[in-house]
């Protein structure tokens, strides 16, 4: 699955400008319906998510990186993975810094890079350096010929076409949800970790009521 590479302003001029709210809403809804159906078909036919999940489960330390909008995707995946796995770290420049990660790559380490068009340089530079130093790289992206494609041990290529000025998150979120689900389902200690977290959340009074948040 691939998507055309264009800028937000170009998509605004092409898709949004001079359209009524009703026409624009209908167009976006129709495009999202089509995109979601394509994403479901792609996920059912391809084994890229299963291969990536197997790498994540077998890793000892798991780092996730992304910049710009991709940081939001990386953060969401990190939260979902850390619910059932230990050793999950978001490389955000605060809790985990790129220099620290690159200077301490060990056997069993894995970097998961979320890199969507227009491919932020920070992510490309860190992830490519990580791969050159012998680390395994799982790439989540939106085309087959991205700057990081040649460096990836495994890759998930997601369509992100949009009828709006912003690339659609629908297919990306679906793929990340499937990736987290398959990874946690394959982890032997995930059930115990999830139960322990539930007990701790109740002990600390983190939530006002029943919730799916982690």
Name some characteristics of this structure.
five-stranded parallel sheet, 5 strands, 8 helices
Q: What's a concise summary of this model?
A:
Residues 52-195 form the SIS domain. With 214 residues, this protein is of the alpha/beta class.
Describe this structure in words.
There is one protein chain. This protein is of the alpha/beta class and 214 residues long. It has a single domain (8-187), classed as Rossmann fold (3-Layer(aba) Sandwich). The chain is built from 8 helices and 5 strands; from the N terminus they run αααβαβαβαββαα. It has helices at residues 8-16, 21-45, 48-58, 69-82, 98-102, 121-132, 170-186, 190-204, and strands at residues 61-65, 88-90, 109-115, 136-141, 154-157. A 5-stranded parallel β-sheet has the order 2-1-3-4-5, sandwiched between helices. α4 links the parallel β1 and β2. α2 (21-45) runs parallel beside α7 (170-186) and α3 (48-58) packs across α7. The protein is globular. The chain starts with 7 loop residues before the first helix and ends in a 10-residue tail after the last helix. The mean pLDDT is 90.
Helix and strand arrangement:
Layout (H helix, E strand, L loop, with lengths): L7 H9 L4 H25 L2 H11 L2 E5 L3 H14 L5 E3 L7 H5 L6 E7 L5 H12 L3 E6 L12 E4 L12 H17 L3 H15 L10
Parallel strand pairs: 1-2, 1-3, 3-4, 4-5
């Amino acid at each position: 699955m691939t998507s055309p590479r264009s800028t937000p302003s170009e998509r605004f001029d092409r898709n949004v400008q001079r359209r009524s709210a009703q026409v624009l809403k209908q167009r976006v809804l129709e495009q999202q319906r089509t995109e979601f159906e394509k994403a479901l078909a792609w996920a059912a036919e391809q084994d890229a998510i299963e291969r990536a999940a197997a790498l994540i489960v077998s890793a000892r330390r798991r780092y996730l990186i992304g910049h710009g909008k991709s940081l939001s995707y990386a953060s969401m995946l990190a939260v979902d993975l850390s619910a059932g796995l230990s050793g999950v770290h978001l490389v955000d420049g605060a809790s985990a810094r790129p220099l620290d990660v690159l200077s301490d790559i060990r056997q069993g380490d894995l970097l998961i890079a979320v890199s969507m068009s227009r491919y932020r340089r920070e992510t490309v530079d860190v992830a490519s350096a990580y791969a050159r130093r012998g680390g395994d790289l799982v790439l989540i992206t939106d085309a087959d010929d991205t700057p990081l494609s040649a460096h990836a041990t495994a890759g998930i290529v997601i369509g992100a076409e949009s009828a709006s000025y912003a690339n659609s998150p629908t297919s990306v979120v679906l793929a990340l949800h499937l990736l987290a689900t398959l990874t946690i389902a394959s982890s032997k200690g995930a059930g115990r970790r999830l139960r322990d977290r539930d007990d701790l959340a109740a002990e600390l009074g983190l939530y006002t009521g029943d919730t799916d948040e982690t």
